[in-house]
Amino acid sequence: MKKNETIKEIRQQIPQKSLSSFTLKVKRIGIDTKKHLVIYMREDCALCKSEGFRSEARIQISLGERWIIATLNVVTSEILKNHEIGFSESAWVKLGVRVGDEVIVSHANPLDSFGYVRAKLYGKPLARSGFKNIMKDMMEGRYSDIQLSSFITACVDLSQKEMIALTKTMSETGRQLKWGHKHIVDKHCVGGLPGNRTSMLVVPILAAQGLIIPKTSSRAITSPSGTADTMEVLAPVTLSMEAMKRVVEKEGGCLVWGGSVDLSPIDDVLVQVERALDLDSSKQLVASVLSKKIAAGSTDVVIDMPIGPTAKVRSKKEAQFLSSLFLNVAKAFDLNLTIVVTDGRQPVGRGIGPVLEARDVLSVLRGDEDAPQDLRERGLFLAAKIMGSCKGHTPQAALLEAKRILDDGRALKKFEAICEAQGGMRELHFASFKYVVTAKCEGVVKNIDNRLIARIAKLSGAPDSPSAGVDLHTPLGAHVGKGQPLFTIYATSAGELDHALYYFEAHQEVIKIREGSL
Amino acid sequence: MKKNETIKEIRQQIPQKSLSSFTLKVKRIGIDTKKHLVIYMREDCALCKSEGFRSEARIQISLGERWIIATLNVVTSEILKNHEIGFSESAWVKLGVRVGDEVIVSHANPLDSFGYVRAKLYGKPLARSGFKNIMKDMMEGRYSDIQLSSFITACVDLSQKEMIALTKTMSETGRQLKWGHKHIVDKHCVGGLPGNRTSMLVVPILAAQGLIIPKTSSRAITSPSGTADTMEVLAPVTLSMEAMKRVVEKEGGCLVWGGSVDLSPIDDVLVQVERALDLDSSKQLVASVLSKKIAAGSTDVVIDMPIGPTAKVRSKKEAQFLSSLFLNVAKAFDLNLTIVVTDGRQPVGRGIGPVLEARDVLSVLRGDEDAPQDLRERGLFLAAKIMGSCKGHTPQAALLEAKRILDDGRALKKFEAICEAQGGMRELHFASFKYVVTAKCEGVVKNIDNRLIARIAKLSGAPDSPSAGVDLHTPLGAHVGKGQPLFTIYATSAGELDHALYYFEAHQEVIKIREGSL
């Protein structure tokens, strides 16, 4: 090489290998990294060496017009061959590659919108433009988990103006529904009480009454069942937006899984990190709930807020604070919001787990004599609240109307019609393994731990095994004799049953009995 | 199974498989996840099923008395066999497992100390007890990256009291040195200017003068060389604490890599996430720097703070703010701290990259006629500042004394003695590929971009190839003729040279020339 050659000359001497001409063959290596997108490249890969890619770098992988941003893990073993690039399950699905595809890899562009997060940390409030830029990048998957974590942490403290801007921006990240009706009603329960499946009563009662209630629900995340899981044992819930609209237009209501209808989809991205941080931010909770309601085109919403020592909201003071946040934001969107504070000291109904909960709901709809009265009362109460808030009924008249619709079978008929419209009603199948936990002494049930009982139901296999779970026989205040059944654990395998029992052995405080005879 | 059997009876019927008796055989699967500890388990593994482990769960892996906390990735392919558990490189090293070992896996305990982070977010200042609990858990690897990110984000805003508590707690996470001398001196440069290797001049000058300067330095993280990298081409730098102490006791000074001596080791954990966030928190910078100095037993410290548009500190205002933070915290620890604001508009010396920088340092120490004067002046200036701050010399007398020590060869002799004491002085080997970039026009050099020139040096292979890098021929203000050499790129392979050139082609603004003849 001579001195003072021009760059052009040099580049003609060295074989052309401009970065954009390097491609790598995709390989699905079967590692599940959840929503986190991870890419695996060999340490001795020409691109790693030339681009200076290191583990944990954020890189862009392109296939034609499509691309994703992922985190790199460098591989030093033979799980990848030369010229191969490994995809985690999430990255494989997200980029939509197929065996044989070749992709182009480059450094991800700097994340300019993170500048708004930095500015917020240094005292500059986040405005609409900041949230818009941030959420655009988030929707494109440009934020790594630690950047998401930093955003969420920075947003624990939001002014009312910021909360409104965040809610509006979140509501615009997916579809935004418009309906040709004056009232679109909805309900949402803050912080899951096990068994609290009131939506499955409220929707048919209100739809039978003539209201429009396009209800979307979530699946279980850390709980033994979400409303979508419980509904799914009775009817399909994974409906497209168009299918959901057809159901609602035909029946006035639906009970579908929110994950398939693209309402405020950014919420899923944030919730995942919030959960891992266990960062219970009231302000983000409000933005999360209301952004979905606003995107769904709701006009009248009732929020069920259970209070109890093992519920999400633990005191009246907490409930007041959270309520004021909800009401202030709702006002900015002309949303007619009603907060209903309920008893959160114990599970609702008897069953915990999809099939057992669905059985309780059906039993209330059918008017069975032994139907769980607490579930029935809550369902009626919430339905009446919504009716009162948008139909102008007095509380008594609304409750009477809701009872009539439930008791004369119109609610059951509507529920069956909704199930049919969503794809056909299904029969319940119960678990074959069960074990009855009995009282060790005579006394009164004085405490039930919502979290522990949910954990036992989960360990027994719920919701992955829909028929697994727990049936609670003795609510708070019940008198029990020694040896009397307290709850039954259901499972679909002896191993899972054993596992739930093993956990119960170590956590017998799940049900506390104050000893003493009648 | 009959109803009402006791739990004991059931557990005798079902084969015993209490979780603690499950073990899995370790497998090193050769995935580099950097400091992030990752564990891979099969989806159909009995433990995943029974424990309900999911991807991204935090789990504890135990081998005898030792244990680590890691993030789980569930594997759905055949890269793991049944009863195997895969380890990322970092997890393998951290737990210290060997082929054939069997480990026990369980859920990680909840991270109680994160409660302090949550409380901080809700307005409660962090006190010593909070920082202590948090850092104990961090040192045990209990914090995931997103939890670290949340902590770092929450700590962007710290009061002076909190900064002092953080600094103290960090300084106690590793060793704390005590020396039997009145003055232990040190220096630190905030925000790397390429080529700014003044430590390699300051240490021998001050040690030759009789002061004690146990200097630890970092390796390059994102730059083409750290002082430890540059020093390493001349002598070993990975010394144990004991070996470092022996060098200092013999020669009065040392130039070792900080990573091996366990001073404020928590800093490495935090820096990794701060870098990924690119969150430039002055308060954490101060705690990071001072915690190391305090742990090292320093009494008198000079901070070199270069200001320039492409340096870390960009304005006088920023420098004033950062200086006041440094001084306030130092005061709480009775640390005699001097801030020296220097010119940060261009690289220091000529070479950028380990070998080229070491050549510059030696050339100054040897008093070569063409030695880079800017490097010499800075070294003398900083050495004099420290001398003045603890020996009571006037600025003029201190500078004169420093010059004498450098010019009469005592500094060179001391440097060679330190190299010998650290394990033996090494010879420099230069790169075989080079390319000279020349001026396209006649004019005056009016701008040099520190970041871009560092990037070119990095792409040429520095610091992994120690002899790679850039030699800058024309500082700011130099008159150049058309075709005159501006800088030379060195590399150890044609590919890397080409790669650096490719980058330069796209970023010719690295050196700006104001056109015009003399």
List the helices and strands and how they pair.
2 copies of one chain form a homodimer.
Chain A (H helix, E strand, L loop, with lengths): L6 H7 L10 E5 L2 E2 L5 E5 L3 H6 L6 E6 L2 E10 L8 E4 L1 H7 L6 E6 L6 H8 L6 H12 L5 H10 L5 H12 L13 E5 L9 H11 L3 E5 L9 H6 L8 H11 L1 E5 L8 H12 L4 H14 L4 E8 L8 H17 L3 E8 L7 E2 L1 H13 L6 H19 L3 H13 L2 H12 L11 E6 L4 E6 L1 H10 L9 E4 L6 E2 L4 E7 L2 H13 L4 E5 L3
Parallel strand pairs in A: 1-6, 3-5, 8-11, 9-10, 11-12
Antiparallel strand pairs in A: 1-7, 3-6, 4-5, 4-7, 13-16, 14-18, 15-17, 15-19, 16-18
Labels describing this entry:
six-stranded mixed barrel; globular; homodimer; 518 residues; four-stranded antiparallel beta sheet; Aldehyde Oxidoreductase, domain 3; alpha/beta; 19 helices; Barwin-like endoglucanases
Write structural notes for this entry:
Two copies of one chain form a homodimer. Chain A is α/β, with parallel strands linked by helices and 518 residues long. Chain A is 41% helix and 19% strand. The first copy, chain A, has helices spanning 7-13, 46-51, 89-95, 114-121, 128-139, 145-154, 160-171, 199-209, 227-232, 241-251, 266-277, 282-295, 316-332, 354-366, 373-391, 395-407, 410-421, 450-459, 494-506, and strands at 24-28, 31-32, 38-42, 58-63, 66-75, 84-87, 102-107, 185-189, 213-217, 253-257, 300-307, 336-343, 351-352, 433-438, 443-448, 469-472, 479-480, 485-491, 511-515. In chain A, the strands form five sheets. In chain A, strands 1-6-3-5-4-7 form a six-stranded mixed beta barrel. In chain A, strand 4 and strand 5 form a beta hairpin. The relative contact order of chain A is 0.10. Chains A and B meet through helix 1, strand 2, strand 5, helix 4 and helix 6 of A and helix 1, strand 2, helix 2, strand 5 and helix 4 of B. Strand 2 (31-32) of chain A pairs antiparallel with strand 5 of chain B.
